[in-house]
């Protein structure tokens, strides 16, 4: 009886936690289809606020800016993060590797507001030093997004490199491949799932960021989170619920893709380990 009561209590506790976490999202989804502006009475099912959203040029412009920024930050941080992860993997001195891992983790553990303010001060200083008319623009916010996306890409790619059999790369070079060609022929296919996962994380983080974007963006470039923040100073119309619903389903889709890639990679890894064990068993006989 005691064990069954404990299981029942844990299930109830889990259900309460999930209800607390997802109830606001469910309410948001439901009232994005409400005909009226009321948040207490659902009058009738309608796509009214979605139509108004797609007629709002300022909001659509901020969506376009956020997508362009996220794609650019993802592309650059994925390439740089993959190269950095490979460089850390090749380090032989243990203390130096620990140092590099610690430096990599700093942008993740550092509070966003500290990162945003410090980068803003750097950009303003550099802009004034070179006599620029404006210190903050698209390029400053892009650099800021690349900075905080890099560690997440590195931490997704580095474990894949550590799981890889190092003898494969050495064998490819012994067979005549240059280090550059061996990387693309052997290493890249092995770590590709980690690269995709890191790119998805970088994209979602860049698309979602507000604090760092707020401090490093100029007046001529406004991202969607900053746009939503400026709208909260006035009355928030239900078309923002419609926008939040669309973003939620896009993020959910990326999360599902990420999980599918991780599951497929885990299955492949288990098959490789099983094949290695079978080979060792055959050789032992």
Report on this model:
The chain has 285 residues and is an all-alpha fold. It has one domain (55-284): MetI-like (MetI-like fold, Orthogonal Bundle), CATH 1.10.3720.10. It contains 11 helices and no strands. The chain has helices at 2-31, 48-54, 57-90, 94-109, 112-129, 138-163, 166-174, 179-208, 211-216, 224-232, 239-284. Helix 3 runs antiparallel to helix 8 and helix 7 packs across helix 8. The chain is globular, with a radius of gyration of 24 Å. Residues 279-284 have low confidence and may be disordered.
Beta-strand content estimate: under 5%
Query: How many H/I helices?
Result: 11
In round numbers, the mean pLDDT is 82
Please estimate the helix content: over 70%
Number of domains: 1
Q: What do we call the CATH topology?
A: MetI-like fold
Reported for the largest beta sheet, the result is: none
Low-confidence stretches: 279-284
Shape, per Cα inertia axes: globular
What is the CATH C-level name?
A: Mainly Alpha
Assign the CATH superfamily.
MetI-like
> Structural class, from helix and strand content?
mainly alpha
Q: How would you describe the oligomerization state of the chains in this entry? A: single chain
Taking all Cα atoms into account, the compactness measure Rg is 24 Å
CATH architecture tag: Orthogonal Bundle
Annotation, overall tally of beta strands = 0
Task: Quote the distance from N terminus to C terminus.
Answer: 51 Å
- Return the string of H and E elements: HHHHHHHHHHH
